[in-house]
Write a structure and sequence with these properties.
Elements: H1 15-24, E1 29-30, E2 33-36, E3 39-42, H2 49-59, E4 69-70, E5 79-81, E6 86-93, E7 102-103, H3 104-112, H4 116-122, E8 124-134, E9 137-146, E10 162-165, E11 168-172, H5 187-200, H6 208-225
Parallel strand pairs: 6-8
Antiparallel strand pairs: 1-9, 2-3, 4-5, 5-6, 7-11, 8-9, 10-11
Helix pairs in contact: 3-4, 3-6, 5-6
């Protein structure tokens, strides 16, 4: 009975409208063409597609939601909504999702900071688009609206899938797209995997146990207050 008295998790009031809008981008082609010294040059460099699509999607519809604003240049998040109450990260990939979810060390610090767990788990969403290069430009193939716990792999070499370069963990990385609907991926599983990843991380993370304790305490408080 006590569980019935817990608060519902906050949700962006225009989330359904946002998802419908983003799904309307699927099948559309973005023509990337520049003019230089009177010549038309088609841009097909995948290294710049991510940044370009942020501008295209924002000015092509997202800003029409009214409360959607762009985040700081080259920093997180990509977009804010409802007076910066909700955060949105846009990720794009071709064929295989190899994008960075977050820098590992910065993510741990954010989660361990006051309010960090609630912010990352329940106030942040990921707008994930798959694209392909076609003769006309960039065609949007699929769209997924995701939470952080749906993205990583929990069954690989590490508790969470990371980019490992010579024994140093740089970035959290996603699992394949077919896994994102896996119902066993839950906030609780993510928290447990994150805590274990901090314990196992070979990086020089200061105050590991204090960070783990902070994350755990925040999670316990969230569970006590909200229906998660």
């Amino acid at each position: 009975m006590a569980a019935l008295l817990k608060k519902a998790l906050p949700a962006y009031t225009k989330l359904a409208q946002l998802e419908t809008l983003c799904r309307s981008f699927v099948g559309q082609t973005v023509q990337l063409q520049l003019t230089f010294m009177g010549r038309q040059i088609q841009v097909i460099n995948t290294n710049i597609v991510g940044d370009l699509l942020e501008d295209v999607f924002f000015h092509g519809g997202l800003k029409d939601l009214g409360d959607f604003v762009e985040g700081p240049l080259q920093e997180s998040p990509d977009f804010y909504a409802e007076d910066k109450t909700f955060l949105f990260e846009q990720k794009v990939f071709a064929k295989t999702p190899g994008f960075d979810i977050s820098n590992y060390g910065e993510f741990v610090d954010t989660m361990a900071a006051e309010g960090g767990v609630f912010k990352k788990l329940f106030r942040t969403k990921y707008l994930v688009f798959e694209y392909e290069i076609v003769p006309e430009g960039v065609r949007i193939k699929t769209f997924s609206l995701l939470s952080i716990w749906q993205l990583p792999n929990y069954t690989g070499m590490n508790p969470l899938s990371v980019q490992n370069k010579r024994g140093v963990w740089y970035n959290l990385r996603p699992q394949g797209a077919s896994s994102w609907s896996d119902a066993t991926k839950t906030p609780a599983r993510f928290i447990e995997a994150l805590k274990e990843s901090i314990r196992q991380c070979p990086n020089a993370i200061q105050d590991k146990e204090a960070k783990i304790s902070s994350i755990d305490a925040q999670w316990q408080a969230i569970q006590a207050e909200y229906a998660v």
